[in-house]
C-alpha cells in the first residue's frame, strides 16, 4: 500500500485552503454546499467530505450537520495535529491506531454506561445501513454508515469533549474505513466478519457492559489495523529497540 500518493482529496483541500488564504471565502463566510463544490472541482461528494474534514482538522473551517462549513481562519493552526492517513508512514499510522484504541475504547465504555434509547436507535440505524451494503462492490457505499456508527458511539458518551476529539479524527477514520473496505471486498467473507465486529461492539453497549464494550472496540480497531497491514508491531518494536527489550 502506497502511503504518500497525491490524491484528489489533497488537491481539492489544497485549492480550497488557497482560496481561503486569498480571501475568496472570508472568515465567517460559508463555503459553497458540498454538491456545488463537487461540481466545481469535478470530483465526488466523498472527496469533498474528506477535503473539508482536512480543512477542519487544520482549524480553517467549522462544520456542523445541516449547516455546512464556516471559515474560521485564513491560515491553519500550528497546534497539535494528527497526520492524515495518506500522509503518514506506517509507524505514524500505528501510533494513530494506538491513540484511537485508547480513545474509542474509553468512549465505548462510557457509552455502555450512559447510552439512551435514542443512542441505540442511531447505532442500530448505522449498522442496518452497513448490513445492506456488505456486498456492494463500490467501496464508498458503506463508508458513511461505518463513520456514522463510530460517531454514534461517541455521541452516546454524552461527553462533548469526547465527541469533539473523536470528530477531530474523523478524516483519518473515513480514510481508514475506505481503505479497509477496498481490501475487504477482495476477500470473500471479510465484509461480514467486519460487520460482526461492529455488532459485537453494539451488543456490549446495549447490554450496558462497559468493559466488554471497551474490549470490543479495541479488538475491532486492532483488527482494522491488521487489515491495513500495520500490525501495531511497528510501534512496539521501536520501543523494544530503544529500551533493549527482546522482541
UniProtKB/TrEMBL annotation:
<dbReference type="InterPro" id="IPR036390">
    <property type="entry name" value="WH_DNA-bd_sf"/>
</dbReference>
<feature type="domain" description="HTH gntR-type">
    <location>
        <begin position="6"/>
        <end position="74"/>
    </location>
</feature>
<keyword id="KW-0238">DNA-binding</keyword>
<keyword id="KW-0804">Transcription</keyword>
<dbReference type="Pfam" id="PF00392">
    <property type="entry name" value="GntR"/>
</dbReference>
<dbReference type="GO" id="GO:0003677">
    <property type="term" value="F:DNA binding"/>
</dbReference>
<dbReference type="Pfam" id="PF07729">
    <property type="entry name" value="FCD"/>
</dbReference>
<dbReference type="InterPro" id="IPR000524">
    <property type="entry name" value="Tscrpt_reg_HTH_GntR"/>
</dbReference>
<dbReference type="InterPro" id="IPR008920">
    <property type="entry name" value="TF_FadR/GntR_C"/>
</dbReference>
<dbReference type="GO" id="GO:0003700">
    <property type="term" value="F:DNA-binding transcription factor activity"/>
</dbReference>
<protein>
    <submittedName>
        <fullName>GntR family transcriptional regulator</fullName>
    </submittedName>
</protein>
<dbReference type="InterPro" id="IPR036388">
    <property type="entry name" value="WH-like_DNA-bd_sf"/>
</dbReference>
<dbReference type="InterPro" id="IPR011711">
    <property type="entry name" value="GntR_C"/>
</dbReference>
<keyword id="KW-0805">Transcription regulation</keyword>
